[in-house]
Amino acid sequence: MKTVIHRNDTRGHADHGWLDTHHTFSFANYHNPQRVNFGALRVLNDDIVAPSMGFGAHPHDNMEIISIPISGDLEHKDSEGNGSIIRKNDVQIMSAGTGIFHSERNPSRDTRVNFLQIWIFPKLKDIAPRYGQRTYLPEKRKNALQLVVAPEENSQETLYINQDAWISLGSMDPGKELEYRLHGANGVYVFVISGKVQINGETLNSRDGAGFSEVAELKIHSQEEAEILLIEVPLR
Known about the structure:
Strand content: over 45%
Number of domains: 1
Oligomer: single chain
Number of strands: 22
Distance between the termini: 17 Å
CATH superfamily: Jelly Rolls
CATH architecture: Sandwich
Radius of gyration: 17 Å
């Protein structure tokens, strides 16, 4: 097993007033040649956006972009005519494909929004842009791993991603253990949203991240109440 650990306080950080953001991997003005990506996982940003503020319309292409709100609401609009608000327990995915413009803003006048923004390199390039959004019941991930994104088109349970990647969420009570089996020779990146867990002998605290490769299975033990995010991707 190979492991790379990224502690909370080693992440890139920028406070723009309207945006307080932490970068697990190199992004914008933060560049660390040792932390550019984990396989096909390119970006994992932890963004807090002030009330009534947001990202203006900007372009993307050939990237799978996933947004997961932790608290608050996030309004999305794009050049394909999609417009929606995503909230806690929602997951959104956008295949930028041949090119798309989108904007994201906090529609609240008094509450900040905290969301995770994930970028994953696509399997196929220059596809038609597509958008997906789904609400997931939190009780389905109570002491369990809830699969929310998978490479399965037309699934009634998960959002489709243009990559051999799987994203899961889990919520654990203290002292619980979960197992995660990888799909073939991929790697899995675990991000602790809150709490404290031990994974294959490595202890991770809130906002710590760790990438595991050359391993078939993870054993996740919660040392306190915890929320976790698992992102399994090809290592390319």
